[in-house]
Amino acid sequence: MLKLFIENHQFNTIKYHALQIVNACKSSISNDVIFAVKYSGLEKIKEQFRELSKYESELLERIIQIDSSESCEKFLNELEIFRKGIKKISEKELKKLFPKKRKINVPKYLLNSNDKISFFSWDDIGLKKRFLLYQLNGEYIGVEGTYSSTSHDSFCYFCRMKNKVNLVAFLSKAKSKNPDYYKIISQYICLDIEECNAQIKNLSHLENLLYKLLKNDL
Ligand SMILES: [Zn+2]
Prior knowledge:
- The structure is a single chain.
- It contains 8 helices and 5 strands.
- By secondary structure, the protein is an alpha+beta fold.
- It folds into 2 domains: 8-80, Monooxygenase; 91-214, no CATH class.
- A hairpin with a 4-residue loop joins strand 1 and strand 2 (129-136).
- 23% of the residues are buried.
- The model has no long low-confidence stretch (mean pLDDT 89).
């Protein structure tokens, strides 16, 4: 059976470095530079995987053969079948994550999706709320935040790319000794969630924010 071993952020990393190689090949720079871009890219890609079989490793090493947009496209297409989708979430699981919400308007596609994304997120325009679902250590957690109505071009906290972002004030789920105390963490996040998922190459910032939101205060 085919083993799906490439997660969304790993695929984004591979794509990023594959395109870097195409750019290096297109600019008339020396072969030494192209060689360096290829091997440092491959190294950065491999760092993203905890373990790789010989076969998986060889698949990724084909990045070295890229010398044009066409060969880049072929390389990425070949990897497409090894991409892992995100675990589906049931309506029951969702209710457990947001117990106080009488009704959460979850876009239907989310529940049926097996998308190649890193996190689920959607906006409730009426409430001006953004919801986020992420599998942290194998278990789904859900957080929500209020977003600002103004947006501007800046770096997104999750994907670290310059995009149209707005400020999202996430509310902590952690318990505090003081019931009137609410911890809020605000970050600039991409307006376009699909784009953010297509660009995120490292999950550490997203996970870091979630850990902070879940951590109990003394
Ligand atoms: Zn983003």
